[in-house]
């Protein structure tokens, strides 16, 4: 699905998306824009509801228009008397198009309150203007100069870098919502935001965009604010962000180390502080593609990222929301460098859940994928603690955990690794297998356990019989120890009863 999103950057906007092309386009003229300081971003603040505000660096007048993001006032529409009609690009001479482009950008810097039904016409005007800007960049009819590019990024920043509304859990204290069970939050301003994101995507992927110039405006500050927006609860916005950030990573090589480090920091904060973030799965999807392109031998920086960020991501209780993407990233590392398998498996064991059975099922599934890429030497280093944990899973009273652990023996590569090291593995899990056969309440688990026992018997009958003999001896000793304990208790009870009788006789005399 991610690759389909990536292809979106090459999709042309259809004519049907433009609405009524015959309608007039309204907006501010030059005097209504520069003098009022409407697009100045020097005081624009970008912050989440639960975070301190951060000022956006930018040149320009410090005066703030009430409709610009970061203002303390609600977004307002322009007065009808201040609106002028602007022509379409196709009706304008090529030499005049850059100037018209700048004036249209000024219109798009106005933000609207989507709960106000009185400004429907003005909102539609902005939407039509944004669509025309997308077409203008897509066509490449006029190459944008540096001033146009600067103004374009400023307009995009004013629109998308905003204070996110409080997440549902911030008001209720509840756990993060499951997107498959609960209706996701949908931003009411999406009709404009979507086109702004599309405009940014077209600008980034355009062959006319010179990275040497563009990196002055798509800088580290811009990338950080873009990453902040991944905490949006609107899944449509996160999909666009994912595609755009991935394209920025591919096109702006100078930003690559910074982007990886910034994503690291988001993970650290999520793991060790908040355990609340809406965009972890999307960030992991981007990283999955990045990891796939790592050159060999792998840098130490990348290995540290695996150990310090990816493996600890197994700790949060909301792992089910991003586990699929996390598993892909983890297995990519092991496939790139098989020597990392031991570290990964020990990391899984470190964060293995104790009471969360659904999470345990996820861990076993991930473990199977990691073992699929594990070589014999790395397997031998971790097989003892690994199969001790698998033995505990086999005896789980939750049938899904026991069943999923037994399914490991359906994987030919894992069976091959077990067969090579059966002398160490069978003594560890023989007792859990016998307990399942005798006492587990689930018939499916009993049947699967019988199949695994039969597999070991056929694999090495002498070893199986030796393990069985040791198990029976251990059971006999346990029974003998229990009988001794019962006998000791009976003697103590008799001695206590005798003392009581003597005390009664003394009192009677």
From TrEMBL:
Function as written in the Swiss-Prot or TrEMBL entry: The B regulatory subunit might modulate substrate selectivity and catalytic activity, and also might direct the localization of the catalytic enzyme to a particular subcellular compartment.
SUPFAM superfamilies: ARM repeat
GO cellular component entries: cytoplasm; protein phosphatase type 2A complex
Region ranges (Disordered): 1-21
Composition skew (Basic residues), residue ranges: 1-13
Protein name: Serine/threonine protein phosphatase 2A regulatory subunit
Keywords: Cytoplasm
Cellular localisation: Cytoplasm
A GO biological-process term: signal transduction
Gene3D superfamilies (alphabetical): Leucine-rich Repeat Variant
One Pfam family linked to the record: B56
GO MF term list: protein phosphatase regulator activity
Coarse class of the protein's main subcellular location: cytoplasm
